């Protein structure tokens, strides 16, 4: 045998010489949940070690992440049921809990980048990402754009550095880009949830925000998980409409989509390692079935190997701690 691939694996120094993929804390974005009140740290049953945090505790958590090298957070508000309406107008209230948190974070940690989520579900009494036609139940595309754009502008005013439209309405990237630019926010980035699939793995996140749809599902706007070429079509549109970064979501069952978008586009690619993926690792680890630390680094490295530049993950803090050792 002249060719023995094992020679390149013979010891750690050799393995490091030939390592193809690098994972660092600087690639990670930590999603955090904010809730009204003070000194709140409310456990989320289906997401062990994740909490709904009031702003005071949110700042403590953000500072810890920043010091570990995770310098971007994605903020998701848990909104009181009494503030949810069919038109989701709380979404662009300048004083809603999301905007209060953004302002407080910017004041406490000016160098931390904040990403805001653009979709109506946390504020909608219907639990949908767009406006629902009360007669037909249809999710109305064009009327939703107006609200999403107002939301993006309100978040920019509150201090968001990046907005992440996760709603999957057609034409939203261009519509939001126009609205931001008109208000002078030409430096606010758009990370588009480009290929967002209708997935069973969002369950724990919907528990975290009490944001599950009251009726029906999200299949008329989120993509069919049987489709890959359609992701390229979405990517081309987002690119033309002015997206800065393209995201694939969920992550692990869609590594093929990450690779396809990476090869098709010159934009940076993000992957969202979502709540259900987090819950699976946590549950198996808590049962003693897998080693959480090892699994987390393996999962996150696989995203980088597939072509993701950026990874949103609820394991960001643990990963950063492990990587710093
Ligand atoms: C809402 C939104 C969802 C997630 C991020 N933004 C859920 C959904 O579309 O129902 C999911 C994140 C996760 O599961 O970790 N537009």
How would you describe this structure to a colleague?
With 325 residues, the protein is α/β, with parallel strands linked by helices. It has one domain (20-324): TIM Barrel (Alpha-Beta Barrel). It is 38% helix and 17% strand. The chain contains eleven helices and twelve strands. Strands 1-4-5-8-9-10-11-12 form an eight-stranded parallel β-barrel, surrounded by nine helices. Strands 6-7 form a two-stranded antiparallel ribbon. Helix 2 (55-67) packs across helix 3 (97-108) and helix 4 (141-158) packs across helix 5 (172-182). The longest helix is centred in the middle third of the chain and has 18 residues, at 141-158. It is globular, with a radius of gyration of 20 Å. The relative contact order is 0.14. It binds ligand PBG. Ligand PBG is lined by residues 117, 119, 121, 129, 166-167, 202, 205-206, 274-275.
What attributes does this structure have?
globular; 325 residues; two-stranded antiparallel sheet; binds ligand PBG; TIM Barrel
Write the layout of secondary structure elements.
Layout: H1 12-17, E1 28-34, E2 41-43, E3 51-53, H2 55-67, E4 72-77, H3 97-108, E5 113-118, E6 131-132, E7 139-140, H4 141-158, E8 162-165, H5 172-182, E9 189-196, H6 203-209, H7 229-241, E10 245-249, H8 255-264, E11 269-273, H9 275-286, H10 292-306, E12 310-313, H11 316-323
Parallel strand pairs: 1-3, 1-4, 1-12, 4-5, 5-8, 8-9, 9-10, 10-11, 11-12
Antiparallel strand pairs: 2-3, 6-7
Helix pairs in contact: 2-3, 4-5, 10-11
